[in-house]
Amino acid sequence: MSKENKGVCFAKGFTAGAAHAGIKEGSTKDDLAIIYSSTPCNAAAVYTTNVVKAAPLKVTKEHLSNGRAQAIIINSGNANAAAMNGELHAIETAQKVAEVLGLKPEDVLVASTGVIGQELNVDAILKTLPKIELSNENSEAANLAIMTTDTKTKTCGMSFELNGKECHIGGICKGSGMIHPNMGTMLAFITTDAAISSEMLQKALKANVRTTFNRISVDGDTSTNDMVIVLANGQAENEEIISEGKEYKQFFFALHQVMECLAIQIAADGEGASRLITCTVSGAKTEDQAETLARSVVSSSLTKAAMFGRDANWGRVICAMGYSGADFDPDHVDIAFGSAKGEIVLCKDGRETKADDDVAYEILGEDAIDILITLHEGNERATCWGCDLTYDYVTINKDYRT
């Protein structure tokens, strides 16, 4: 297996394109993107758990009822959520893409991101769609078009072998704020040329979301528009995966690598963030226990603020563990902070170690910080990702709508 900086055009038969429609007044960036497969795909998706679901998500869910799709249309600048004619506009968008590409409307999936509660400028979208040029060189252009408050594109690819055939998985995503498990304002689009049934694709996607996108947190908010979509067109010509076995495990692992890579990039690009925080809980009785504790730590505003200030305040870590809802013995907890500058143990058996604050300050000055927690209760572990909380987070969000 080989991980590469490749996106949705990495797999055979996939192209993408982007254009500027002017969806958000005053914005000059490309805000419309299409991802297209030259042949029909088996497809799978996972959606936000927010009760308020955006219109594009509802339309996509309906179009995916048969487990098939061939194109995705994405717009930024407007979420098309809680809008008067939201579903009508999402349907009109899918119909126009189908007309342009010679597809059935139900083979087109729809995604949107941006401001909630405002009417979508669907006329601008319908007018711009025919102008989008598709190419296998346009993954980065599509990635840029779907960004909102993101400061950088997020892409990842993996090549691997199935039944002697070279296969590829590539993905792009957007996400910076409103990020929290189950999921947060994030859209992820993954393509593969591997042949796999819709049922097995859905199974692999759902299981991998739990250990990747559902283990990141930026600010505790879960959005109305989140979705992860995977398209598989089978052009690698491997024997189709229709059940669990060796080939399914190989595909599952490759998909996990791509999804984890994308998830970490989202956490690192949290709104206003200056540091990626990785929290690993080991020595747990169960993976669920470890995950609950790690998630609570990376979601803690006080811990995130301490990381921004390079303050080795392990008390905030054990406090976040304490209200996580997970059962553990606080008198047997070890806590260490680490980075490229080294590692320092701050808490042993639930008590401070009198560690050198100056050394800790140097360690916490790096762009990527590890919070390492050991429970001494078992052999299970889990990792979650987040970022620090900076002044810029408030600056970005105080006037996001205007």
TrEMBL record:
- Catalytic activity line of the entry: L-glutamate + acetyl-CoA = N-acetyl-L-glutamate + CoA + H(+); N(2)-acetyl-L-ornithine + L-glutamate = N-acetyl-L-glutamate + L-ornithine
Report the pathway entry.
Amino-acid biosynthesis; L-arginine biosynthesis; N(2)-acetyl-L-ornithine from L-glutamate: step 1/4; Amino-acid biosynthesis; L-arginine biosynthesis; L-ornithine and N-acetyl-L-glutamate from L-glutamate and N(2)-acetyl-L-ornithine (cyclic): step 1/1
Which GO biological process annotations does it have?
L-arginine biosynthetic process; ornithine biosynthetic process
Give a GO molecular function annotation for the protein. L-glutamate N-acetyltransferase activity
EC number(s) of the enzyme?
2.3.1.35, 2.3.1.1
Q: Give residue numbers for the site Cleavage.
A: 184-185
Q: Would you indicate the residue range of the signal peptide?
A: none
Residues of the site described as Involved in the stabilization of negative charge on the oxyanion by the formation of the oxyanion hole: 113-114
- Residues recorded as binding substrate, renumbered to this chain, are 148, 174, 185, 271, 397, 402
Family under the similarity heading: Belongs to the ArgJ family.
Task: List the protein's name.
Answer: Arginine biosynthesis bifunctional protein ArgJ
Question: To which species is this protein native?
Answer: Ileibacterium valens
